[in-house]
Amino acid sequence: MTNQSKIWIVVIISLAVGWVIGNYVIPIPGPQPTLTVPTVTAPEPVLEPPVSEKNRIQVTDTGFVPATLRIRAGESVTFVSKATAPVWPAGNPHPSHDAYPSQAYTLAGDQAKSFGSKACVEYGARKGDVFDPCRLLLPNQTFTFQFTEEGNWSFHNHVRPEHAGTIIVE
Ligand SMILES: [Cu+2]
Predict the structure, then answer these.
(1) CA–CA separation, 97 vs 116, rounded Å?
(2) pLDDT tens-digit profile of 28-86?
């Protein structure tokens, strides 16, 4: 065997041994590198609460809280039922609920009287913008109404009309 052949054999064996070590020898685990994750604090989203959240009136078993609320024209008021019994916040007068809006209702009829709320039957059912949910509110249910007309708009609980309040729209 020539020296050149010996060199080639040594080279080939070295490569083979290196390949085996590189692929089959289980590496001894060293200390895990500590990764420092930078703490990124997301900015708090600035959410403007809906106007109806700001102007909130609770309807309770003993009355409205607050009973008087001052708002600007165009703002909405949300009535939220916190009573144990169904409630019905609606605009005065009881039982027609038709003082707001101030424009006169054009329809009249005995059918309205049978429903209790003239506003719902003659106006709200068609236009949807009377100060009246036209339904009972169960606990935690809400009724949101937008006031576009300035004025003092009194309201009551249709189920217990002695519970009353006023929305002052400026
Ligand atoms: Cu009423």
Answers:
(1) 9
(2) 556 666 666 666 666 665 554 454 568 999 999 999 999 999 999 999 999 999 999 99
Ligand 1 centroid distance, CA of 156 (Å): 6
Q: Is the dihedral of CA 154, 158, 164, 165 positive or negative?
A: negative
Cβ atoms 79, 137 nearer than 8 A: yes
User: CA-CA distance, 117 to 111, in Å (whole number)?
Assistant: 10
The Cβ-side half-sphere exposure at 146, using a 13 Å CA radius, reads: 7
Cα-to-centroid distance, 93 and ligand 1 (Å): 7
* Distance of alpha carbon 122 from alpha carbon 134, whole angstroms: 11
CA–centroid distance, 66 to ligand 1, in Å, is 19
pLDDT tens digits, 127-149: 556 788 888 999 999 999 999 88
Q: 124: CA distance to ligand 1 center in Å?
A: 14
Task: List domains and CATH numbers for the chain.
Answer: 56-169 (2.60.40.420)
